[in-house]
Write a structure and sequence with these properties.
Blueprint lengths: L1 H16 L8 E2 H14 L7 E4 L3 E2 L6 H6 L4 E2 L3 E2 L3 E4 L2 E2 L5 H20 L8 H18 L4 H15 L7 H15 L53 H5 L4 E3 L34 H14 L3 E3 L23 E14 L4 E14 L9 H15 L3 E9 L4 E2 L1 H12 L10 E8 L2 E8 L14 H16 L5 E9 L5 E7 L7 H8 L9 H13 L5 E8 L12 H16 L3 E6 L8 H5 L4 E3 L6 H14 L3
Parallel strand pairs: 2-6, 8-9, 11-17, 15-16, 15-18, 18-19, 19-20
Antiparallel strand pairs: 1-7, 3-4, 5-6, 10-11, 12-14, 13-14, 16-17
């Protein structure tokens, strides 16, 4: 009975203390896609991902209702770091859904201006107060169409913000300054200071955004093995996108006993105790318990104990020994890499080794793929020759309307055109095409999709069917795989080179592929492009098959790897090559448009369908090239 009364009381006081309209709430997931387009159209950083922000402690004075309910300590505001734009998970500030959506778009607009004006990141209350007004002025001057939306938001927000609020004189002066700054941006340059921080302003970015802990290789003690396995593909995207406040601290020595503290304070503080706690045999349950404990903590402190792991023997599962069956074709090939922070192309920064697997006996096509291969081969054999329109001909079966319109325009403009070619003719034409398929063989492809198959098995079947489908088309094609371990060891696995016949030897190489290492994609793309560029074909296509984001053991992680891969794609296109990425990463839509463009990639939602879809995608790309 007491528990039920407590629950009712908690719901009652929480509802009284909170000022929101849940029935009109707008979720970030509902507007994230158009919001991303809007953010980038206004000049925002193309490389930023939009994620849910973390509720942070705001240090402003709370009213008696919030103190009674124990609410109002934390609030979700917007901010951005090097990799992400943080926006509230939901906005339920206004009773009108459209106003809540407008607030999302306004936060995106002001965040776009922060990118173009790095000086606006000034910390401190006075700097925050002035810079937010400056950003608002710049938005309204550059995009006057947002003026009416902004003033509508301000009016509705001030009506709610000042509802039933009674403040002391000095705090009221602080609030009046904020109201004036919102209503007339740029009209006031100082804000009175009090013993409390100003009340949060939902239309402005975070005044002091939290620092996201970034663990780099230099933070790892020497006695730790730096060759840890690549994270497997997550199943719960909500958990992966959630960020928590954290800091790096020194490891406590555990010598400060509780006896040094006053007894009555024992239940009022948290103390680290270096205790070997037992774990649950169920890994999923243990992970869920850890996530729940982390959610209950206001701030996470992370430390390393710098102690060697138990046991004298270490198994290097991630870094298998080089096979004696590998024959090196080229070694120590130096390639550049793009540093987006310094905005320089670092010459001879990466080293590539090109090898071929000496599989020995000739392989055969697996029995379960033969029927599908025969069907796909029949479909693609029609691509050997095709009938195309040859335009701008001196004679032909039909009038070329585009040529005729251009001719008439030239005549009216006073230009003299001699012997105009105004006809078009439908004739058979041989395909002149070379394709290089570059597959990701990183350790993440060792993840199991089902009880029967892993990602690497799906990739192997895809390579088989791709090769079988193209063997009779006459198209020149090559197949390579790649993985990496730091910038000095990028492995490039030759499965089939240009000019090499597809036969049992190639099948045995495909059958022998194994996952390992990481995904330094930029260097692999540059090296593959150098192979494709040597082909004397009218159309040259680089197909990239991957299962996740670029990453490696060193700093090639997150934004750095994405920006280097994007730069590599731009370099490849400048060489006159066509690129297209095929991925089975469900979250590829967050970073692939930035790397390959909106029409330069596709996501296979069901990885088991990849083997059948890959040849069809190739047919569509080469029949109707972008």
């Amino acid at each position: 009975m007491e528990e039920q009364v407590g629950q009712i009381w908690d719901k009652l006081v929480t509802r009284i203390s909170e000022k929101n309209f849940k029935e009109s709430a707008v979720q970030l997931s509902e507007v994230s896609k158009p919001l991303g387009i809007f953010f980038r159209a206004l000049g925002g950083d193309n490389g930023l991902r939009i994620v849910e922000s973390t509720a942070t402690l705001h240090y402003a004075k709370r009213n008696w209702k919030q103190k009674l309910a124990g609410t109002g300590k934390y609030i979700e505001l917007s901010w951005q770091d090097e990799d992400t734009l943080h926006l509230p998970k939901q906005i339920a500030v206004f009773p009108d859904i459209d106003l809540n959506k407008d607030l999302y778009y306004w936060l995106a607009a002001i965040s776009a201006q922060v990118f173009e004006n790095p000086s606006a990141r000034t910390r401190g209350i006075q700097g925050w107060f002035v810079s937010c007004q400056t950003l608002t002025q710049q938005i309204l001057e550059r995009f006057p169409g947002l003026t009416s939306r902004y003033h509508r938001l301000v009016q509705a927000y001030l009506d709610i913000r000042n509802m039933d609020v009674q403040l002391p004189d000095i705090e009221q002066a602080q609030e009046d300054a904020i109201v004036q700054a919102l209503s007339e941006p740029g009209s006031i340059d100082t804000i009175p200071t009090t013993s409390f921080a100003p009340r949060p302003v939902l239309l402005w970015p975070h005044p002091n955004p939290p620092e996201v802990a970034n663990f780099s290789k230099k933070d790892v003690p020497e006695n730790e093995d730096d060759n840890q396995s690549e994270p497997s593909r997550p199943n719960n995207t909500d958990k992966e996108n959630k960020r928590r406040n954290a800091e790096r601290v020194d490891m406590p020595d555990g010598k400060d006993g509780l006896i040094l503290h006053r007894f009555e304070s024992i239940f009022g503080f948290g103390e680290f105790l270096n205790i070997n706690r037992s774990t649950d045999d169920d890994e999923e349950a243990d992970q869920d318990s850890a996530d729940q404990n982390a959610d209950d903590m206001d701030f996470l402190s992370v430390a390393r104990d710098n102690q060697a792991k138990g046991g004298k023997v270490k198994f290097d599962l991630d870094l298998p020994a080089d096979s004696v069956d590998e024959v090196v074709l080229e070694s120590d090939i130096k390639l550049p890499e793009w540093d987006y922070k310094k905005r320089i192309l670092q010459k001879d920064y990466c080293s590539v080794i090109n090898f071929v697997h000496n599989a020995g006996a000739e392989g055969v096509l697996p029995e379960n793929l033969r029927r599908t291969a025969r069907k796909l081969r029949q479909q693609l054999e029609a691509l050997t020759t095709k009938r195309v329109w040859h335009r701008h001909q001196s004679e032909g079966s039909e009038l070329d309307l585009d040529a005729y319109i251009n001719y008439v325009g030239e005549r009216f403009s006073g230009h003299k055109v001699e012997q105009p070619d105004l006809y078009q003719q439908l004739r058979s034409s041989e395909r002149d095409l070379s394709c290089l398929l570059l597959a990701d063989f990183s350790l993440s492809t060792d993840t199991w999709l089902s009880n029967e198959a892993r990602i690497i098995d799906v990739i192997r079947d895809s390579l088989f069917l791709f090769s079988e489908s193209l063997r009779n088309t006459g198209d020149q094609f090559a197949i390579y795989g790649f993985s990496s371990r730091n910038r000095g060891h990028i492995r490039f696995n030759t499965l089939k080179a240009f000019g090499e016949a597809y036969n049992g030897l190639v099948r045995s190489r495909i059958q022998a592929i194994k996952p390992g290492f990481y995904t330094r994609m930029g260097a692999a793309i540059r090296y593959a492009a150098s192979k494709l560029e040597m082909q004397d074909s009218q159309q040259r296509l680089l197909l990239i098959l991957t299962d996740g984001k670029p990453n490696d053991l060193d700093r090639y992680e997150g934004r750095y790897g994405v920006e280097d891969t994007r730069r590599a794609i731009h370099e490849v296109k400048a060489q006159g090559l066509q690129t297209f990425c095929i991925t089975i990463d469900d979250q590829g839509g967050e970073y692939l448009p930035h790397i390959f463009g909106n029409n330069g990639y596709t996501i296979i939602r069901k990885p088991e369908h990849l083997p059948q879809k890959l040849p069809i995608l190739y047919a569509n790309l080469t029949t109707n090239p972008a």
